[in-house]
Amino acid sequence: MLRYNNIIINFILKNDMRNIKSFLIPILAIMVLIPMLSFGAFMKVGESVSIRKGDDIKDNLYVAGGNVSINSIIFGDLLTAGGNVLITENVSDDMAVVGGAVKILGNSGGDMRVVGGDILIAGNVAGELIVTGGSVVVSSDVMVGDDLIIAGGQIAIDGDVMGDAQIAGGIITINGHIKGDVKIKIDEKLIIGDGAIIDGNLEYSAKSSEVLKMSEGAVITGETIFKEIGIAGIEMEGIKNFIFAIIGVFVLFKLLAFILTAFLFVWLFKRFSNSVLQSVVKNPFKMLGKGFVALIIIPAASILLFITLFGIPLGIMTIFTYILLLFVACMYSGIITGAWLSKIMHKSDRAVITYKNIIGGFVLLVAIRFIPFIGWILGLFIFLVTLGSLVDVVHRKLWNDR
Questions:
Q1: Who is most buried in 273, 299, 341, 378, counting CB within 10 A?
Q2: What is the mean pLDDT of each run of 10 residues along the chain (402 residues)?
Q3: What's the domain range around 122?
């Protein structure tokens, strides 16, 4: 599993807006969705979704719904999004959760990433724990095997952390044992309780050193370092934390929607999807040219149709078709990216569409589009190639049916 510490620390501990892009790349693309790249998958979507006790899932589990309740052991990764999310059983690998109210009572055998409103973490985490929320509680019986990174409004850390801790929030309370260094950005109050043990250094940044309230029973082995920051810096940090939470939820649901739609298209139109893919693989630069022409010519033709009275209905139909074509091209971009990359990596003679390739393709597209300049060019290239292939396949199909 990739390491995210340095990127996230830059976001929490620095105040310039340029860090938002570098932060969103791993957080929203890799951190949340990379667990999908394993082979097996069990998917469930609905207004109310419940995985009952005893229905152990042997593969990865992807769940989205208004109310999500997972009461079964997951022998793989878990990705879930919902208004209310309750997880009572263990997940053997990584866990990524987005929700309004989130309660995690089971253990995670890998990393755990959570975005939400009210968040309770009451299960052990073998790897890193990364959380953004309005109210975050890490209960006293929790052990985090690696680093802890939290941004939120009210934060209570009562569990033990084997690595370092990076925290940003309004009111922060620490009553657990943290074996590494602790770096904190605080707005209102930092409480180091009687049960707190910090083996490393405590570095906190705030508008005044008076925000620190340390109990007599607290133990800090290293140095206690205060760094003063202005009110504007604290407000900017709060704004960035809020933006992250909102964008994180939006991007996750958008990607889930695209991935589920792609699954549906491939299932319903398997032959058509394969034709689009093979056209790209055989003649990518030819498809690039067709995609560029389609991108320019179709809207221009629609405008010309609107000039004539009798061409207005056809112009309206052309515009709607164009919009639909752009949407389908966006969706197929992820499918083609994953299948094409898989063909190159495995040195295969033929590109094939699999669920794994679809998910991997969408994850990769999200990541590369945040790369300055080069990412934009790559994203545009893939989109135009896909658009050209769609136009080519549809044209050949219509021509053969004449």
A1: 273
A2: 38 39 38 41 68 81 81 88 87 86 94 88 94 90 94 92 92 96 91 95 90 92 87 48 50 66 80 88 89 86 74 77 84 86 79 79 72 78 90 79 55
A3: 5-237
Q: What is the DSSP letter of 26?
A: I
pLDDT of residue 117: 82
Q: Which are the contacts of 279, defined by CB distance < 8 A and separation ≥ 6?
A: 287, 389, 392, 393
Helix %, strand %, coil % of the chain (to 5): 45, 30, 25
On whether both 12 and 111 belong to a single domain, the answer is yes
Q: What domain count does the chain have?
A: 2
Q: Are residues 29 and 162 in the same domain?
A: yes
All residues at 6 or more sequence positions from 181 whose CB lies less than 8 Å from its CB, including other chains: 164, 165, 200, 201, 202, 203, 222
Question: In residues, how long is the chain?
Answer: 402
- For residues 260 and 338, give the distance between their C-alpha atoms in angstroms, rounded to a whole number: 15
Q: Assess whether 66 and 184 both reside in one domain.
A: yes
Q: Do residues 230 and 164 both lie within one domain?
A: yes
C-alpha closest to that of 361 among 63, 102, 29: 29
